[in-house]
What does this fold into?
Amino acid sequence: EVQLVESGGNLVQPGGSLRLSCAASGFTLSSYWMTWLRQAPGKGLEWVANIKLDGSEKYYLESVKGRFTISRDNAKNSLFLQMNSLRAEDTAVYYCARGEAGGGVHTFWGQGTLVTVSS
Amino acid sequence: EIVMTQSPVTLSVSQGERATLSCRASQSVGTKLAWYQQKPGQAPRLLIYGASARAVAVPARFSGSGSGTEFTLTISSLQSEDFAVYYCQQYNNWAPLTFGGGTKVEIK
It folds into this structure.
């Protein structure tokens, strides 16, 4: 059974940092693009970043470029999102998802982890 | 950036009736269009990809159509478990991948 389990969400002050993790099981992580997406409270879905199978290509939402870094450890079946210089507008539930069709279609999602940026 | 616009924002439908949801892209995305369903407190679930292909285990009452800039998700006979928010997403142009604002299907 495919499972994605996010962790690392927390309350953090503006300007602070957090590192989110996503533990994958039930499939071979190295065979798939992986994505981070987010959903602000009461709002819609927003793509944040994705990473190619071997980590050789990464793409980011413009508003997080230079602040967020996506990475993966295929040997440990894990995906990460390092978030620095956090802003109030980064407050959201963050989901990791498995990508297909070249990474653009999100076939399996984790349950999400909540990041709250507030003083 | 490709802007995705969904209509209506809210759709009130009785159980057993047909529901038709629309999604428009600001420029052509071919058939690189997906639909997701999200229930309160849950992660989204993929329903449709390639504009019309049903994902694994998605009931046949869900169908997608369209190409270019105009797309439709149809639920042929609404069941109680179908009341949720539905999002379209284009994957023709990356960085960013973009979603529509969602259509909430509620009980009439």
